[in-house]
Design a protein that fits this description.
Structural class: mainly alpha
Strand content: under 5%
Strand order of the largest sheet: 1-2
Order of helices and strands: HHEEHHHHH
Number of domains: 1
Radius of gyration: 16 Å
Number of strands: 2
CATH class: Mainly Alpha
Shape: globular
Length: about 200
């Protein structure tokens, strides 16, 4: 779901960068020393998983772990995502520096949304909680991606085989797959390390 350099127009790149700075600042505020190891571990997992990518036009399809990051890191998720994206852009030219803000928003907002909705998942099984977290995070990211592409250049939405339509088709099976993977991961961790998951207000 990384957007490459040069895809967004200048005004959109500036606006998303400013919004991402605010989001990362919110994520860092009040961080505690004991949270650092968990953030580092999940940042590494995000960094590795997001390097598995299939290019589709100006973006790419790959695992995101957004739902999992939202459940485990809570409001610290944007920090881990930002660090992972910086490393990917600088070390492997995956994504871009001019679109770093946009890519941070694409993955952080769904993760925070999952964290916010986790209270409503409280009464369902850990597997279903993980499934919905993974599935909804992908769907949210795709919606944001289409919004950014269409507002940056209407041509991305033109025609039956437009970039927007291709992204929808490509990400639906990934959303289902990530839902299952997140579901099994959450189910296991709820049994082994329930304290790992983020609590509200942290």
């Amino acid at each position: 779901m990384h957007i490459a350099d040069g895809v967004l127009n200048v005004s959109m790149a500036v606006a998303t960068s400013a919004a991402a700075i605010g989001l990362v600042a919110y994520s860092i505020k009040g961080i505690k020393e004991e949270e650092v190891p968990k953030i580092s571990l999940l940042t590494g997992a995000f960094f590795v998983s997001s390097l598995i990518n299939i290019p589709i036009g100006p973006a790419s399809v790959h695992p995101l772990l957004g739902g999992f990051l939202g459940l485990v890191l809570g409001r610290r998720a944007p920090l881990g995502i930002f660090i992972g994206l910086v490393l990917q852009a600088t070390l492997f030219q995956h994504g871009g520096l001019s679109t770093l803000g946009a890519n941070t928003l694409l993955m952080s907002i769904p993760a925070l949304a999952v964290y916010g909705l986790s209270t409503f998942f409280h009464k369902i099984s850990p597997f279903l909680k993980g499934f919905f977290a993974g599935f909804l995070a992908i769907c949210g990211g795709v919606i944001l991606l289409m919004f950014l592409l269409l507002f940056s250049d209407q041509r991305y939405g033109e025609g039956t085989f437009s970039v927007v339509n291709l992204l929808l088709v490509a990400y639906l099976p990934l959303a289902i797959l990530e839902g299952f993977l997140t579901g099994f991961s959450v189910k296991y961790l709820y049994t082994a390390r329930p304290s790992l998951f983020a609590k509200k207000g942290r």
